[in-house]
Amino acid sequence: MTKIGLITLNSSDDPRANLGVTRELVIKAADAGAEFVLTPEVSNCVSSSRAHQKQVLFREEEDPTLAALRETARLRGIWLLIGSLGLKTDDPDGRFANRSFLISPEGEIKARYDKIHMFDVDVSETEKYRESDGYRPGTKAVVAETPFGKIGMTICYDLRFPKLHRALAKAGAQILVAPAAFTAVTGEAHWHSLLRARAIETGCFVLAPAQTGHHAEKVDVNRRTYGHSLVISPWGEVLFDGGVEPGLGLVDIDLDEVARARKRIPSLLHDRDFEVDA
Ligand SMILES: O=C(O)CNC(=O)[C@H](CS)NC(=O)CCC(=O)C(=O)O
Questions:
Q1: What whole-number distance in Å separates Cα of residue 142 and Cα of residue 43?
Q2: Which helix (H) or strand (E) holds 31?
Q3: In the annotation, is 45 catalytic?
Q4: What is the interface pTM, i.e. ipTM, of the complex?
Q5: Catalytic: 156?
Q6: Which of 72, 77, 229, 235 shows the smallest number of beta carbons within 10 Å?
């Protein structure tokens, strides 16, 4: 059994305040015996104003949230997935990275992953996102090794591109992480179904820490996220649902369930090539 600590946040556009809340919940998870703790997408700052982000975000090397959470992981001896941080980069267009970090109990960065699929979507007339204007998409899928299993890294909108999850599972992933800031509207319609589908298709545990509630009202009145941090078993059962309040969920997962689910339905081994007659 591995004890998972899943953190739901209502991050503001103030990275210092967000760090305070996040660190407190990470410590609470460690105190409760969690071995692996996960935070949502853009844990450090939810903001769609590029001007504001330019003021408050740092490069990876100087980012105070990353440094502080690495230290917390080390002091508490836990594995920590920082679901993602908005970070400055040397992108020629000045775009940020939406980057996840897997931190070891020694406080080392064991893996980093830049979100591949950009959320360029009109959710409604008043709620439009052009993530690729502000963020530079990644080009590399990542599977990272831990003592409790291999972790396939994804972020938020990646959830809608099952090719990625299949590639991660085929590369050995037993746990898929899907930190998110799903919109309230699309979350209501799709969040549980998409996460359960990815778990069922791959025979992986899916761990999905989420942002929740209203964010950064000054610059972005409509920004509202869905919450419902979830843990899904490899058979597709919802083992935990964090609801809409920020806080901590604790769930024990049994990695043997991965092999059991894949034995019952070995679809991961049954891919076939085909042509499309159109
Ligand atoms: O903008 C930031 O600061 C961080 N990025 C996000 O919150 C991103 C892009 S706006 N949100 C999503 O990917 C939501 C996906 C979603 O809701 C869906 O697929 O339905």
A1: 20
A2: helix 15-31
A3: no
A4: 0.92
A5: yes
A6: 77
* Domains identified in the chain and CATH numbers: 2-264 (3.60.110.10)
Distance CA 274, CA 108 (A): 43
The residues facing 143 across adjacent strands are: 152
Q: Which of 56, 133, 183 maximizes ligand 1 atoms within 8 Å of its Cβ, making it the mutation to test the pocket?
A: 183
Ligand 1 centroid from CA 263, angstroms: 35
For the stretch 230-262, pLDDT in tens is 999 999 999 999 999 999 999 999 999 999 999
Supply 123's token pair: 């959710």
**Tokens standing for residue 144:** 């990272």
Residue 47: what pLDDT? 87
Under a CB-based contact definition with an 8 Å cutoff, are residues 192 and 228 in contact?
Answer: yes
Output the CA–CA distances (angstroms, integers) from residue 82 to 57, 124, 240, in the order listed: 16, 30, 19
Q: How many residues does the chain have?
A: 278
pLDDT confidence tier of residue 221, bands split at 50, 70 and 90: low
